Hints:
Elements: H1 3-11, H2 14-43, H3 48-58, H4 61-72, H5 77-87, H6 90-102, H7 107-116, H8 119-128, H9 136-163, H10 173-187, H11 192-207, H12 215-240
Helix pairs in contact: 2-4, 2-9, 2-10, 3-9, 4-5, 8-9, 11-12
Amino acid sequence: MSTLSRVQSMYARPAFREGLQDMRAVSLGIAAWGLVTGVAMVKSGLSVQLALAISLFVFAGSAQLAVLPLIAAGAPLWLILGTAFCVNLRFVVFSAQMRPYFENLPRLRRVAYGYLIGDLNQVLMIRRHPHPTQDPQQAQYFLGVSLANWIAWQVPSILGILMAQHIPGSWGLAFAGTLALLGIVLSLLADRMIAGVIIVASALSALLFWLPLRLNLVVAIVGALVVGMAWEAWSSRQLGAGGLLDGTKP
């Protein structure tokens, strides 16, 4: 089957199209932040080739942004790698949450889905399919939101990398990207667990701003992970006891 035929076959699936549609609502904010990250990588001293490789192979915007100040400051390699590791620890939780959905799929597909996992497509997947059933439509939906997320990030990020030397700093792209990211975050506050994680991470980051080498970001990520994992454990106990989170019975 040709590539075009595969694309047409995927798009013909309603669950895949639904995933594309759901991600479209936040794609503009993702694109703006991707553009800012692409520009920031080159402005921080990375070569175009290295920035492109990081964007395509690392594909973790928060980790990329967290290590850029360290790279620009000439921080030791162990600190750069440790920071990226801590920031990306949340993907361990994400992958564990996704395992029941995809554990019967071939290994190569599971690896590909692991690469595509991100913050927003993870949230949308859990919202749309809170209970894993290994129904093929769940995998199709995840592929739809994930490919939309990947394209919305990569295309502007690559454009930012290629155009970085021609974009003056006076344009204030960083501020625009911050506003875009803020819009995405605010759209997620309806979920109590995510709201709690955001509040804890924001508070720790602000209170520990005095730490050198942006270590406040590392502490904020770790604190958010602890809160998220504690909430998941508490939720599981509540559901196991036969009650819902609002105290009612099913």
